[in-house]
Specification:
The chain is an alpha/beta fold and about 475 residues long. The chain folds into 2 domains: about 15-225, 3-Layer(aba) Sandwich (Rossmann fold); about 295-475, Glycerol-3-phosphate (1)-acyltransferase (3-Layer(aba) Sandwich). The chain is about 45% helix and about 15% strand. It has helices spanning about 5-15, 35-45, 50-65, 70-80, 85-100, 110-120, 130-140, 170-185, 200-205, 215-225, 240-270, 270-290, 320-330, 345-350, 365-380, 405-410, 425, 455-475, and strands spanning about 20-25, 125-130, 145-155, 160-165, 190-195, 210, 295-300, 310-315, 330-335, 355-360, 380-385, 415-420, 435-445. Helix 3 packs antiparallel against helix 4 (about 70-80) and helix 11 runs antiparallel to helix 12 (about 270-290).
Length: about 475
């Protein structure tokens, strides 16, 4: 059993209610790495810091590395670099940075831990020396209401480059947790704490259920002495040589299958549909095997209960399309953004399968492109479509568009919801490297659209989306 799963079980079996706290450190605990470094890189890239500020920050890093200063010096130097900047612009840039850089470094294991505490009704909080601009976007994504962090001074909408209050490092973080627990009347003996750094010892000592995460040397020593259970989360950093080799083999394998399908389907049988069916019957299994991705499916019988159908799937990753193709197998087409038509491999497959490429920024073009899809359904060809319309940077489900539902109603075919979990963990939106692992799939029973009316469509879409939310929230877990 994975370490974090044993803690999930511990949380589920433990005391419930809001008097139990669950405190999570941010850098190195919720995410792999340090958000301050990511923000500094972005500031340098955008030339938003002066040479003097760069020297100031580098000096702080050097002093900490040589043990001439505490880590608060780095936070203070980073805060000074924000002096004079518009607060609203910094907040907006931070949201963008989260989506583009930080979201992919969130530990999948910690998402499950946060959900476990939330199900128990615990008071969940992030406690970090980082600023609200670093912590806030992830807190909102995880549904964490309470954030204890280093606050920055703002005057007339402009950041002054000074800290408002104290830097929540070491003793400061512990004191902030203590004050918060007192205000909320939390029982710290029954509460949980998660942290990775040596400076987190003080705050972990406050709670009765401390859990060091990938601990530093000093924290690991204290954990051994105090018999604290240590959690080890898999790295979200740079992939190793084996993973890169697997990806190279995967690309080669996908190309080989596509060329084989083209050759047999077009040159021998002169049939685009047969060529596409050959590729989708063989290609996904080969690609997933080469990448080291195992697919575990529940409700597979619903894939064949009614054909043709409109197969819906939640969209986090390019890996989704491969997994869904492996499930649906044959006699289907899809809907994809027009940008993919410029990718040679996908363009070839899309041409064979009569994929409808839509311009998400042009509603008229999108409606025109979807028109022939209805005819395909009437001819017995199923359709695969992501109702969110685009990939999410995190597992959080986005709003559903109505196109897929209109298509099903016009063609008179059912909707089959395919709920995917873990695809974004194995291939993040902003990455091109597939990590080995398991993808969980739940295929839900067909949703028949007989009798649906256009005026009720908002409610119908919300009902189908709720099926996804309910499934993702209460997924039947299997220990690995």
């Amino acid at each position: 059993m994975n370490d974090h799963l044993s803690v999930v079980d511990e949380v589920a079996a433990g005391p419930a209610g809001p008097r139990v706290g669950a405190f999570f450190d941010f850098d190195g605990t919720l995410i792999n790495g340090y958000s301050a470094a990511v923000m500094a890189q972005e500031q340098l890239r955008r030339l938003e810091v002066s040479p003097i500020e760069v020297v100031d920050l580098l000096r702080a890093w050097l002093d900490v590395g040589l043990k001439r200063a505490e880590e608060e010096a780095i936070v203070a130097a980073a805060v000074r670099s924000f002096g004079g900047r518009d607060e609203a612009a910094v907040a907006k840039a931070s949201e963008h940075l989260f989506v583009k850089r930080i979201a992919g470094s969130v530990y999948p294991e910690v998402r499950e831990l946060v959900r476990a505490h939330q199900k128990q009704g615990h008071t969940v909080a992030i406690a970090s020396s980082a600023t609200r601009y670093q912590v806030g976007p992830l807190a909102r994504d995880l549904g964490i209401e309470h954030v204890l962090c280093t606050e920055l001074e703002v005057v007339s909408g402009t950041l002054t480059g000074r800290v408002k209050g104290s830097i929540l490092w070491g003793r400061g973080k512990a004191e902030a947790v203590r004050r918060f627990a007192s205000r909320r009347r939390l029982d710290l003996i029954d509460s949980y704490g998660y942290g990775n750094g040596d400076e987190d010892v003080r705050f972990l000592e406050l709670v009765g259920r401390p859990h060091p995460v990938n601990p530093g040397r000093e924290l690991a020593r204290v954990a051994r002495e105090k018999a604290w259970p240590v959690l080890r989360f898999n790295s979200r950093g740079r992939p190793g040589a084996l993973v890169l080799a697997r990806n190279a083999a995967t690309i080669y394998g996908a190309g080989a299958v596509t060329l084989t399908g083209l050759g047999i389907g077009l040159l021998v049988n002169r049939d685009r549909r047969q060529a596409f069916n050959l590729i989708t019957s063989l290609g996904p299994d080969l690609v997933l095997a080469l990448a080291g991705v195992h697919v575990e499916v529940s409700g597979e019988e619903h894939l064949w209960a009614h054909r043709p159908a409109v197969f819906l799937f939640n969209h986090q990753s390019y890996l989704d399309a491969i997994v869904v193709a492996r499930l649906v197998r044959h006699d289907f087409t899809g809907v994809a953004k027009k940008e993919l038509a410029k990718t040679p491999l996908f363009a070839a497959i899309g041409w064979l399968g009569n994929v409808a490429f839509v311009d998400r920024g042009d509603s008229a073009q999108a409606r025109q492109a979807l028109g022939p899809v209805v005819e395909k359904l009437r001819d017995g060809v199923s359709v695969v479509i992501a109702p969110e319309g685009t990939r999410s940077a995190t597992p959080r489900l986005g709003p559903f568009k109505k196109g897929a539902f209109h298509i099903a109603m016009q063609a008179g075919v059912p909707l089959v919801p395919i709920v995917l979990r873990n695809t974004g963990d194995l291939l993040w939106k902003e990455s091109f490297v597939v990590r080995p692992g398991k993808v969980d799939v739940a295929v839900l029973p067909p949703v028949y659209v007989d009798g649906w009316k256009v005026q009720d469509l908002d409610r119908r879409v919300a009902e189908v989306r709720q099926l996804y939310l309910d499934t993702l929230a209460s997924w039947p877990r299997q220990d690995t």
